[in-house]
């Protein structure tokens, strides 16, 4: 069993949240798995953690289509934040719109965080999906 | 004695009336008559003992050679020329005789000359004029003829004979001459003209046709002039000119011109030619029709400034100048011409420099094709393409929405089923089954939503009716009375009771219902909700406006997503993000539009554009 300090699941669909949590349960030891219904909630929590000097999540599972603030909106704001730590973001979506895929490629290039892109359905989360990559820095 | 003789001879010879000189075998002057000395203009020179060759400059060789022949005992005669001291050419008729002594020995030459310069010059002039006349007559193909009334003899010069294609020895008569003319108009005319000339002394000059001896038709210019003696015509002289080529080329030119005019007039183009000052010097029928004149003459000499709007004329004039300066034609340029009566026409215009013989531009040839109707069609097509492009975009967008929404549910099925297969724990299994049921309900709901959208998009031609806005509003308010009461909503209606809009009734109800419930749903927690209705009229649209004082939306951030499917911007558990999407679809299906203005924490206004019944 791997150990990860903190994981975010950002998705407005409770079934997906349930599924990801369940799959993570078989893979890692993590006391801090938090789910958010939309990008705004997740972003607010990041801000809270930054001000209260709490540890930021190591891995974020991010849905694209969400109310209020969608996945891209969240990424846009999140990447503006000064976070030296390298965070892994797994985009998980049912969209097969090429425009979404291209957006991911664009974001991927412009940040030091590691962004991955997966299409639903997912049946299993592999160890490398939650690789805690922030080794050297 | 001999001496005395010689002097006596000399004295005799000096006085001879003819210009005579005695030359020895070296052609030195021994005796000379005063006349000879005068002829050669040698009065100021002592000629005796001098060589003739020295005395007479620029003498012609033949003359000097004949002196040599004379020494051989031959008498010589001929015409010689030399240049005198004044530089004038002089012509002499000469006779050279051998000069014998008593012993029949040739001791020299006796030369007698006669100055014929004057008569010879006249003859030369006559010859020159004759040659000139002949060559002119040959070049211009002008012959002459003469008719003597007394002897009744008709004379033709060689050229006249050549034009008639008769042999050189042909002897014409006045009757035969007339017979050469082509039967009909030509022959009748010449007979009448000759008769009038003979009887009344009237000169004539006429273009007529002859048939030559060789059987060829020819155009000739026949002219005659009577000469009178004591008031009676005695002679007719005249010229006879072959003008076949000229007349034929004139006819050809006329034919070409006719062809060109026919062509130019019947071209479905406006054609004009302008001079250097951009004044029209030629226009075709189409150009006249376009400018609304009946006669081409009305346009000749007019410039664009006389015919068009000043700005248009200036542009056109500058183009003309540029084309004439650079000699580079303008081909197929799209231009809009505005006439003085302000009617605009779109033309495909070409301007070609008209070159003079020296290669400079002397004007402009203009060709314009009226493409106004094509432009209209083009615009229609462009609009159609735009509409199609927008619809296409909407369709693709909708396809992605459909795919996303269906996939999200089916993905959940797959995932949950996968869990279910692997799950041992009964309680957990039950939980997963509950989730599957939930997912299935969600899928059904999604399908219903999508169906509703598709039915709107496909029912483009649903029948619209004239609806009284206030009546419809009253009905909806009645339906929503519980909701409105619960939240103490204040309704302000500024719409006149007679106001009518043109809409599919069901759509109008749905639009009102959606917008009113939205206004209530997104009310501001700190104030009493107020909803204001109003209507304004535009040319083609009637605009229904609904204004609230609710939460408002950050338009900069979410403006483009506002009418998107499953987009919500507030923490509201009963928002599904489908209402406005459907509303927008309904409005657009009726050829209308919906726009929102909003300010965060102030409120939102939706303006719904309904097409008027009489708009196109």
Automatic annotation (TrEMBL), chain A:
One BP term from GO: phosphorelay signal transduction system
PANTHER family for the chain: RESPONSE REGULATOR RCP1, RESPONSE REGULATOR RCP1-RELATED
Keyword Transmembrane: no
Ranges for domain Response regulatory: 6-135
Keyword vocabulary terms for this entry: Phosphoprotein
High-level lineage: Bacteria, Pseudomonadati, Bacteroidota, Flavobacteriia, Flavobacteriales
Transmembrane segments: none
Modified residues (4-aspartylphosphate): 63
Keyword hit for Transmembrane helix: no
InterPro entries xrefs: CheY-like_superfamily, Sig_transdc_resp-reg_receiver, TCS_response_regulator
Protein source organism: Flagellimonas lutaonensis
Xref: PROSITE patterns: RESPONSE_REGULATORY (PS50110)
Gene3D superfamilies linked to this entry: 3.40.50.2300
Designated name of the protein: Response regulator receiver
From TrEMBL, chain B:
Keyword Glycoprotein: no
Record EC number: 2.7.13.3
Enzyme class: transferase
Top-level taxonomic group: Bacteria
GO MF, one example: protein histidine kinase activity
Catalytic activity from the UniProt record: ATP + protein L-histidine = ADP + protein N-phospho-L-histidine
Domain Histidine kinase, first and last residues per copy: 401-614
Coiled coil: 433-486
Residues covered by the PAC domain: 76-128, 204-255, 331-383
SUPFAM superfamilies: ATPase domain of HSP90 chaperone/DNA topoisomerase II/histidine kinase, PYP-like sensor domain (PAS domain)
InterPro entries per the UniProt record, alphabetical: HATPase_C_sf, HATPase_dom, His_kinase_dom, PAC, PAS, PAS-assoc_C, PAS-like_dom_sf, PAS_4
Keywords from the named record: Coiled coil, Kinase, Phosphoprotein, Transferase
Protein's name in the database: histidine kinase
Organism encoding this protein: Flagellimonas lutaonensis
């Amino acid at each position: 069993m791997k150990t990860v300090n903190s994981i975010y699941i950002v998705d407005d669909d409770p079934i997906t949240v349930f599924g990801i949590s369940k799959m993570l349960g078989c893979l890692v030891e993590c006391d801090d798995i938090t789910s958010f219904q939309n990008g705004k909630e997740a972003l607010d929590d990041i801000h809270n953690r930054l001000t209260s000097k709490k540890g930021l999540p190591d891995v974020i599972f991010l849905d694209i289509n969400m109310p209020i603030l969608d996945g891209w909106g969240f990424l846009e704001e999140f990447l503006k934040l000064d976070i030296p730590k390298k965070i892994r973001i797994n985009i998980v979506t049912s969209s097969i719109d090429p425009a979404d895929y291209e957006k991911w490629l664009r974001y991927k290039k412009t940040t030091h965080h590691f962004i991955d892109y997966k299409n639903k359905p997912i049946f299993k989360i592999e160890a490398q999906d939650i690789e805690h990559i922030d080794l050297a820095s | 004695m001999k001496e005395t003789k010689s002097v006596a001879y000399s004295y005799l010879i000096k006085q001879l009336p003819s210009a005579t000189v005695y030359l020895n075998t070296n052609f030195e002057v021994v005796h000379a008559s005063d006349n000879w000395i005068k002829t050669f203009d040698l009065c100021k020179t002592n000629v005796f003992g001098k060589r003739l060759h020295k005395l007479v400059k620029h003498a012609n060789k033949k003359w000097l050679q004949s002196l040599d022949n004379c020494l051989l005992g031959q008498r010589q005669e001929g015409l010689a020329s030399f240049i005198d001291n004044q530089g004038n050419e002089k012509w002499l008729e000469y006779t050279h005789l051998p000069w014998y002594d008593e012993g029949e020995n040739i001791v020299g030459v006796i030369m007698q000359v006669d100055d014929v310069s004057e008569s010879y010059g006249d003859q030369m002039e006559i010859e020159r004029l004759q040659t000139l006349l002949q060559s002119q007559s040959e070049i211009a193909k002008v012959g002459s003829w003469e008719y003597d009334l007394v002897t009744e003899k008709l004379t033709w010069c060689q050229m006249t004979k050549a034009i008639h294609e008769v042999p050189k020895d042909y002897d014409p008569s006045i009757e035969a001459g007339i017979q050469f003319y082509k039967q009909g108009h030509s022959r009748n005319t010449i007979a009448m003209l000759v008769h009038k000339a003979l009887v009344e002394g009237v000169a004539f000059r006429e273009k007529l046709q002859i048939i030559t001896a060789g059987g060829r038709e020819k155009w000739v210019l026949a002219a005659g002039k009577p000469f009178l003696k004591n008031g009676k015509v005695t002679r007719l002289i005249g010229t006879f000119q072959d003008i076949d080529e000229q007349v034929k080329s004139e006819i050809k030119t006329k034919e070409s011109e006719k062809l060109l005019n026919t062509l130019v007039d019947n071209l479905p183009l406006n054609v004009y030619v302008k001079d250097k000052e951009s004044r029209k010097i030629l226009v075709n029928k189409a150009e006249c029709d376009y400018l609304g004149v009946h006669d081409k003459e009305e346009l000749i000499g007019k410039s664009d400034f006389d015919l068009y709007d000043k700005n248009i004329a200036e542009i056109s004039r500058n183009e003309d100048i540029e084309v004439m300066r650079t000699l580079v034609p303008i081909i197929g340029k799209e231009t809009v011409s505005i006439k003085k009566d302000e009617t605009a026409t779109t033309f495909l215009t070409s301007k070609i420099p008209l070159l003079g013989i020296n290669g400079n531009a002397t004007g402009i040839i203009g060709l314009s094709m009226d493409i106004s109707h094509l432009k209209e069609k083009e615009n229609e097509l462009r609009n159609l393409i735009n509409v199609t492009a927008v619809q296409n975009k909407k369709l693709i967008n909708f396809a992605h929405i459909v795919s996303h929404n269906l996939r999200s549910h089916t993905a959940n099925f797959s995932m949950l089923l996968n869990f279910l297969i692997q799950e041992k724990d009964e309680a957990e299994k039950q939980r997963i089954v509950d989730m599957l049921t939930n997912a299935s309900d969600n899928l059904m709901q999604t399908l219903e939503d999508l169906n509703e959208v598709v039915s709107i998009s496909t029912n483009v031609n649903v029948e619209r009716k004239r609806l009284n806005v206030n009546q419809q509003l009253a009905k909806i308010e009645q339906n929503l009375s519980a909701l409105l009461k619960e939240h103490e909503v204040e309704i302000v209606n500024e719409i006149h009771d007679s106001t009518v809009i043109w809409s599919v009734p069901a759509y109008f109800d749905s639009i009102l219902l959606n917008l009113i419930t939205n206004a209530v749903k997104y009310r501001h927690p700190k104030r009493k909700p107020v909803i204001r209705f109003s209507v304004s009229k535009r040319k083609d649209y009637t605009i229904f406006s609904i204004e609230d004082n609710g939460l408002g939306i950050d338009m900069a951030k979410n403006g483009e997503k506002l009418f998107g499917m499953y987009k919500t911007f507030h923490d509201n558990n009963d928002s599904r993000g489908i209402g406005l999407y459907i509303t927008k679809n309904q409005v657009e299906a009726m050829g209308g539009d919906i726009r929102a203005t909003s300010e965060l924490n102030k409120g939102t206004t939706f303006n719904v554009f309904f097409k008027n019944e009489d708009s196109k």
